[in-house]
């Protein structure tokens, strides 16, 4: 029996997956909330996303089941939400589920009063009792009966929970000074959490945590402590060798279910790959090691090949499953490899990439580097360079074969926030590794957001798909996109990007700012009224809007000379001062921004024609270095320039010149690369 519900009119691939469930689903909106109030029915709110494996399982077991759907339709107004479209709803109700149960995740299942206040919830519920969990039909029946017979208790619980949820928007600045002590304490905690054998933090499952690794690298730059650099280097090296990295196609999977980065959850998210591109780029600048350069190259190729829409925006995710099986697209048997490479090459490949008859994942092999090229070259008596070339050709041959398989599904909605993260990454990769294709893709995506995801009044939309942009953008959309625009300015020196960044920053402060307590709200002043208006400071899988805003404000302050931006950033740090020191893995990006706030700023102003090899050499000297607190601006001879940083700058003896300033006090200009290197090192 085929059903069609209201989700058929949505653009989100996740919502459209549920459009033919027998459940009478509503999207979140006035119609559903009004019906719940008119009929005095509780709301069942289900939140997930298209690349979520257990979301698909619960749909198949429960939402496609006629009897379960009948129970849902009889007693509840049922609302389906894509967490990637509505991070505001996801954050509010995830806080509620964690408060009620001590943990959270997706699919998220929450029961609300008709006014939207949560009173009961959890995550995945099975169709029959198991794992010590009640069945979903049992939960539906119990909640419905409680709502009918214990109304006062439920309303009291909902009121108390909603009051607790509102606290994030009311955090007052603590008495703690913003000092380097916070950074030092955070580093001490990181050493406690670090897995020095396999990299990463904690036991299993293991998440990439690129923001924490970036903070570790910034602390190495601050202190020169090799032990803190080792945290980043060990982690990114183990990940690059592991199954969490796609050894054939580039790009990182979501996380590892084990401690050793071998077996991933196979979905690939745009935001993970954007952040890991930058982490690997930073580490390559510090160490110069080929393994990190290769990861950057291959992951960039992956994004341009798989995740870029014809219109220029970047898609959101790729599923873990293909043909109904998790990971099927990515795994191999020895016979499949031998059929492509032949016996001798297959044996060599298997030595490096751990291919065995037994396999390491359900009888198949997830490719991972188990022996270095040097070790295998020595054991078989081949030159290292020759083996590296042969392995590259083997990987390419297997990649071509793999492309014939049925690919995992792709969520092709385009989100302003995640595009901002990828624009930032590709802009930096483009100029550091001389990848004009990466820089062009970053510019195309920025143009796409400005052209297709902007409202008539200049505000941004959150999401775009199938020619339709919708939903007011959130703080994280503005902050991430602004950060991407700033990176584009520093990569191209096109003042248009800086002008757009400044315009959107002003809008962001007006829409999301809190003049009383500091920090920024997740939702804008003209957003629909929800049960609470929260502020998010925690850096989870994606940086919080406040972290991104602080980082962008500080960088804009240096480039434009507007100290008001720096003051706004300081008001973001103040409420979180003690929490950052105690829980560094929850504040990686915010700690990095605080480090920038506390460090001497360095500004490099270059004067010269960008096409002149001497200008290019000066720029290359800056860009090949890891300089987390340095901003770069460029002026062509004779140009009028609105940036204070470039005022009064000119060629020196007719040659392109670099002016290096610290905290707006400048050294004498230099024209040679060696002289510039000394100033930057100084």
Kindly list the characteristics that best describe this protein.
single chain, 682 residues, alpha+beta, Glutaredoxin, Glycosyltransferase, Arc Repressor Mutant, subunit A, 4 domains, five-stranded mixed beta sheet, four-stranded mixed beta sheet, 19 strands, 10% strand, globular
Summarize the topology:
Elements: H1 13-17, E1 25-27, H2 30-39, E2 43-48, H3 53-63, H4 66-75, E3 77-82, H5 87-101, E4 108-112, E5 118-122, H6 136-149, H7 151-165, H8 180-193, H9 210-223, H10 226-241, E6 255-256, E7 264-265, E8 268-269, H11 270-287, H12 290-306, E9 317-318, E10 321-322, E11 325-326, H13 334-341, H14 343-353, H15 373-380, H16 384-402, E12 410-411, E13 414-415, H17 416-432, H18 436-452, E14 461-465, E15 468-472, H19 475-492, H20 495-512, H21 545-560, H22 563-573, H23 577-582, H24 588-598, E16 602-607, H25 613-623, E17 630-635, E18 657-662, E19 665-666, H26 673-681
Parallel strand pairs: 1-3, 2-3, 16-17
Antiparallel strand pairs: 2-4, 4-5, 6-7, 8-9, 9-12, 10-11, 13-14, 14-15, 16-18, 18-19
Helix pairs in contact: 4-6, 9-10, 9-11, 9-24, 11-12, 11-17, 13-14, 17-18, 17-19, 18-19, 19-20, 19-21, 20-21, 21-22, 21-24, 25-26
How many structural domains are formed by the residues? 4
**Which CATH architecture of the largest domain?**
Alpha/alpha barrel
Low-confidence stretches: none
CATH topology of the largest domain: Glycosyltransferase
Gross morphology: globular
What structural category characterises the helix and strand content?
alpha+beta
Radius of gyration: 26 Å
Helical residues, percent: 40-55%
pLDDT averaged residue by residue: 95
